[in-house]
Amino acid sequence: MGAQSLLTRLSTSAFVPSFKDFQGSLSDTAIPCFLLPTKWSSMPADQKYGLSTCRIRTSRRQFLCSVSSRKVEDTSDNLAQCSSKPSRKRLAVFVSGGGSNFKAIHEATLNGSVLGDVVVLVTNKEGCGGAAYAKENGIPVVLFPRTKEESQQFLSSDLVTTLRELEVDFILLAGYLKLIPVELVQHFPKRILNIHPSLLPAFGGKGYYGLTVHKAVIASGARYSGPTIHFVDEEYDTGRILAQRVVPVCAFDTPEELAARVLHEEHLLYVDVVAAVCEDRIIWRDDGVPLIQSKEDPQQYN
Q1: Contacts of 38 (CB under 8 A, 6+ apart)
Q2: How far apart are CA 82 and CA 74, in angstroms?
Q3: In angstroms, rounded to a whole number, what is the distance separating the alpha carbons of residues 191 and 158?
Q4: Pick the catalytic residue: 196, 214, 230, 264?
Q5: Is 196 a catalytic residue?
C-alpha cells in the first residue's frame, strides 16, 4: 500500500499538504489527510494538575551513581558520541486521551529543551484531546487501529511503512491504551518508550491504566508511587525500565489526588528522558539494563 493511502482523515475539511511542507526529505508523493489546525485552549496549570495539598516533602533531584563493577557495552563509543553534537531526532507520539504528556514533550521541542521534533501523532481515538492539540499545531495524525466499520483497513505493516517513510527515530507512547503490534516492536528495537503511572513492576500489566492503577496503589497501603518510563516489548509494561520518579501516597488520598500528583511528575520525567534519548545519552549495561548518562558528567549514570 502506498503512503498516499496510509494517513487517515479525521476532518472533512482537512488541509492536504505535501511532504515538502514538513521537515525531512521523504518522497515527492503528496500524502493526504494531514489535519487542518483548529483552535484549542488549555486550562491553567493549577487547574490542569489539580494538585492536592499534601505537605510531605520529596526531592526532585536526580541521584547519580557511578558504574564500577558493572561493565557498560561500547563505553568508548558512547563517550565519543557524547563528545559530538547529535542531530535532531524525529519523534512519533502515540496517545489515546487528552495527551498532556504529548503536549509537554512537544512544548519542550519548541523551547529547546528537547533536541527533536514531533513529526506525527498516532491515536486510536480520533476525537481525543491529543488529536485536537496536534491539529492546532499542524502535526499530522494517523488513526490506528481503525474501527471495523472503516471501509479501508489500516494494517500494522501499513503503520510501519508510514513511520519509516516519515523517517521516525523514536516512538513515544503517552497514554496509548492499545498493545503495540509485534511488527512495530521488531522494526523499532530499543526505540519505543512508554510511560506508566506506577513504580513498575508493581501495578502494571493488562488492565492497569488510569485511575485503576491509583485505586490499586491506595488499596495496597503502599506509601509511595510514581511514574515509570520503560522500553516497550511485546507485552504490557514488561520492557526494561529506564527511569522512575517517586511521589508520596498521602494518608487520605483519593485516586484523583494521587493521579494528579503522579501526572505532574510524569510531565517532568518524560521530558527529561526524551531529552536524553535525543542527545544519544542512553547506554546499555552488559546485563541489558539501560542507563541515562549524565549530561554534565559523562562518567555518571542514573
Answers
A1: 11, 132, 135, 136
A2: 12
A3: 18
A4: 196
A5: yes
**Which tens digits make up the pLDDT trace of 224-241?**
999 999 999 999 999 999
Residue 238 backbone phi and psi in degrees, to 5: -115, 0
Closest CA relative to residue 267, chosen from 185, 179, 172: 172
Please list the residues that pair with 285 across neighbouring strands: 72
pLDDT tens sequence across 41-60:
333 444 444 444 444 444 43
Residues 6+ apart with CB under 8 A from 173: 93, 94, 180, 192, 193, 194, 195, 232
32 prior amide bond cis, ω within 30: no
To the nearest 10°, report the CA torsion of 263, 264, 265, 271: 100
What pLDDT does 54 receive? 46
pLDDT at 86: 85
Per residue in 49-97, pLDDT tens? 444 444 444 443 343 443 333 444 444 455 444 456 789 999 999 999 9
Beta bridge partners of 231: 193
Mutual angle of helices 255-278 and 100-111, in 10-degree steps: 40
Question: Which amino acid, 284?
Answer: W
Angle (CA) 298-301-302 rounded to 5° is: 145
User: Side chain identity at 225, as an amino acid letter?
Assistant: S
Contact call for residues 282 and 295 (beta carbons, < 8 A): no
pLDDT given at position 233? 95
Cell 508511587 belongs to 225
What is the H or E stretch that residue 109 is in? Answer: helix 100-111
Task: Give the H or E element holding residue 141.
Answer: strand 141-143
Chain segment 197-220, per-residue pLDDT in tens: 999 999 999 999 999 999 999 999
